[in-house]
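Running this now, will post back.
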Amino acid sequence: MIYHDVAGRTGLLEILSWARPHDSAIERAFCREYLDRVPGMTADAFGNRMIAIGDQPHVMWSCHVDTVAARGGQQDVGIDQLGIAGLCNGKAGMSLGADDGAGVWIMLNMIAAGRPGLYLFHRGEEQGCLGSRWIQRHTPDLLKDIDAAIAFDRAGSGDVITHQSYGRTCSDAFAISLASALNGLNPGFRYRPDDTGVYTDTNEYAGLIPECTNLSVGYQGQHGPRETLDVDHCEKLLAAMLRLDASLLVIERDPSKQEDDRWGWHDHYYGHRDDFADAIAEYPLLAAQMLEECGLTLDDFRMAIWAEEMGGDADYRPLMAS
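Update: finished.
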């Protein structure tokens, strides 16, 4: 079995050329071609892929394999003279998929370099963190030795996320230590702690793992046809990750306790959400058009309404590994 070489810009652009909605044939083909060929890669009953490098690793690296797209298939990707990648012929229902193709590319190259850690390639993040939620509910022992979970799934180029929908998911001390380490490895970096995270797979592990964060990888405008990726930043981040000494990161947060400061974040977020809802109520047709351009269908929206009405009784159907 041939292991795909995804080194360099060619490998990154190759990954971005696959539009892969969750549970689509193209997503399953991508996992077979790029993940299952990696020696030592395994799959759980949901189809999450994982591999451990090193003796009892204490850091988990996280990304997700699905992208926001109305249809799966191959897409044309280009890169301009400034090193910014984007779709060549982007249309409604399409996205570049740097969210989270960039994370997939970084992690595959870290694996190829033999960097220690537990690597988790989650399925269904764009549908509500289905893969990580499945692990959290069904196989939490997988994470029993993990002190820090770092996702490569944040827009921009400078955020180390401290808060997500759970509330605080990593300590300021950890975020500062990670930001400082990265900035020390590349003087052009401007990483810093950021408390405006929303939701990615590491959020699901905040009650199990002390430090759960999300790291900016260089994309912007995710989930739509105008999504871009700063390839130069992504390459520099990979170079830094290949040199990072994760043993020096500060582990401080107690996952069994939710800190009171989550409520300040909660009020700020929901105040912003109320303003957003007011704007949508005033311009509903524009909001519907933008949702369609991001690849959201009416059935998706109705399913979200059902899940909201069901509350804690709503559950997800486990998917078998392909």
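The chain has a mean pLDDT of 88. More later if anyone needs it.
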